[in-house]
Structure formats: structure tokens, C-alpha cells
Write a structure and sequence with these properties.
heterodimer; A: mainly alpha; 5 helices; B: alpha+beta; 5-stranded antiparallel beta sheet
């Protein structure tokens, strides 16, 4: 998958956990999940589990800690997809 | 090592089904904490509430430690709650929409214990009601200088809750410190700081909001 394809799917994963739908539509790799999208930290675990199910991957604890903004989420998901493939 | 850390879990906002699923709680609980639960009375602390109680303690500890070292990672399974203690005869009650503030927890029935991260031990007090779980941590088991507050709000928007918790905390800070004109800002690392006349005050503060609750804690130890 390309980064753009991952981003497109990632928007769907994040959507249930942010009220800021307008910003979500225009997110880029610098968009911060907590500071910009106002996602509660308690929902970050939900996003990781949903991403694991969506991409059929496993995200370890250290990688999960790196998933701060959209770009690092794509990095981690892309790495895991490549490892799984 | 003076700092501040708090967290609130609004139980009406919790996904109960997901909280019970091993794929979810395995990302939060240390393996030893799954064993620790077997030593507790589930009629007092059901498993879903246990997961979120530990989450609130871990998030509070992370905030406490991150103020001191901005590179501290938040990996919940690596923060290990070592004990969960209830006062004798503890029975969970309802807080309704009541506002609560305090300095220390001497007159309140709290859950208490300790948590460890990379050799650092912190202590916690948790208020456990039907509606919420609210934790505060400290580097000693003495919470006499720890001020805290909880407030209910029907408005779930981020902007409202962010403004409300600051206004709520500033009111208590000004009373506790005998100062006026205080402002809560964030430093470059995103950690909340108290500012007076453009200067940062040495009063570590922590803010939290979730669901329909906002809350703060701040540490006045160094003011003595």
C-alpha cells in the first residue's frame, strides 16, 4: 500500500474518535492525534486495535508509543504491512 | 521530584464490551496486574472498572513523570500497579453531578496503592464512584499538599472542557497560593504550567477531562 492509500483508510479508523470531522477531512502527515484532532488518550488504544484489525497486523507497545501524529501512524502501519507481507 | 499527575475516566463514556476483550486490556495491563486482579473482590471492583482504574493511575503517573522528563514514553503495560487497596467496608456510591474539591484525601474513602516505572515508585489515591474514576499520584504516600477538584459538565466539546478545567483550577490555585491573575499555559513539551505576570510559578499542575467530567490536581509541597 502507498502512504496515500494508508492515509485514506486511516481516516476511517480515526473518524469515530474525533468530533473534529472538518479537520479530519483535511489531515496531513503533521496532524497530531491529540493536539489537533482532540482525540482523548483513552481512545488511542481503540485506534491501535482498530488499525490492527483493518490492516491485519500487530502493533507492539514500542511502536504504539510512536503513533503521535498521522505521519508516524503511517510509518508504523506501513512497516507492519511490509513485515506481514 | 515534585510534580503533578491526575486522570479522570467518565464511566458512561467507556466501551464495556471492548474493555472486557483480551486484545484491549492486554495493551493496558502488565501481566502481573492480571494476576493481581485475582486477589481482589470482584463484587467491589468489577473487571471493567479494574481496567479503567489502572488506566487512570497509569495515565496520572505518566503525566507526573513526563513533566520531569519530556522523553518519558506512555506504554501502559510498562507501568505496573503494585497494589490496589480499599478502606474497610468500602461501598461505591454516586457522586451525581456534585462538584468536589479538596486538599489531601483524609476524610474520603479512596482506593490507594503504588505504581512503579523503571525503578521509580509513585503512590496514588483514586476516587471511585458509580459515575467516574479519578486518580492523583504523588512521589510520597502523603497527599496533604495535593490539591484536587472534579466538576461535572453536560457540554462534551473539547473547547468548552479545556476552558472549564482551566477556570476551575485557577480558582483553586489562587485561593491556595494567595495570588491573583494566574493563567494556565502549556510549555514547549505540552505540559501545563502556571503563569503569574509572565513568569512560570513552581506549582506543578495536571489537568484532565473525559466524558462529562473535568478535573485538576496541583502540588503545593514546594511552597512550604
Amino acid at each position: 500500500m502507498t502512504r496515500q492509500e494508508i492515509l485514506s483508510e486511516l481516516k476511517k479508523v480515526i473518524a469515530p474518535y474525533t468530533a473534529n470531522k472538518e479537520l479530519l477531512a483535511g489531515i496531513n502527515e503533521d496532524t497530531d492525534l491529540i493536539k489537533d484532532l482532540k482525540i482523548n488518550s483513552a481512545n488511542l488504544v481503540d485506534i491501535i486495535i482498530d488499525a490492527e484489525a483493518k490492516y491485519k497486523i500487530e502493533i507492539d507497545y514500542d511502536s504504539a508509543d510512536k503513533m503521535i501524529n498521522v505521519g508516524t501512524c503511517i510509518d508504523v502501519i506501513g512497516e507492519r504491512i511490509n513485515q506481514a507481507g | 521530584m515534585i510534580s503533578a499527575g491526575n486522570d479522570i475516566v467518565s464511566l458512561e463514556a467507556v466501551n464495556v464490551t471492548r474493555s472486557k476483550s483480551p486484545e484491549f486490556y492486554a495493551k493496558i495491563l502488565h501481566p502481573a496486574e492480571e494476576k493481581l486482579y485475582n486477589t481482589l473482590d470482584p463484587s467491589i471492583l468489577p473487571f471493567v472498572e479494574y481496567v479503567w482504574l489502572l488506566w487512570s493511575v497509569k495515565e496520572s503517573a505518566y503525566k507526573y513523570l513526563r513533566r520531569l522528563d519530556h522523553t518519558t514514553p506512555f506504554i501502559p503495560v510498562r507501568l505496573e500497579v503494585q497494589s490496589v487497596g480499599f478502606p474497610p467496608g468500602f461501598a461505591r456510591s454516586s457522586i451525581g453531578t456534585e462538584e468536589l474539591t479538596g486538599c489531601g484525601f483524609a476524610s474520603l474513602a479512596t482506593v490507594s496503592g503504588s505504581i512503579i516505572f523503571e525503578g521509580i515508585t509513585l503512590f496514588y489515591r483514586t476516587l471511585f464512584y458509580n459515575e467516574l474514576i479519578a486518580s492523583v499520584v504523588n512521589d510520597s504516600d502523603n497527599f496533604e499538599e495535593i490539591h484536587w477538584g472534579l466538576k461535572w459538565t453536560p457540554d462534551r466539546t473539547y473547547a468548552h472542557q479545556s476552558a472549564l478545567v482551566r477556570e476551575f483550577a485557577v480558582g483553586s490555585l489562587q485561593l491556595a497560593l494567595g495570588l491573583s491573575g494566574l493563567v494556565i499555559d502549556k510549555n514547549e513539551a505540552g505540559v501545563p504550567i502556571v503563569v503569574c505576570d509572565g513568569k512560570e510559578l513552581g506549582a506543578p499542575i495536571s489537568l484532565s477531562h473525559h466524558g462529562v467530567w473535568v478535573g485538576y490536581s496541583f502540588n503545593c509541597t514546594q511552597k512550604k
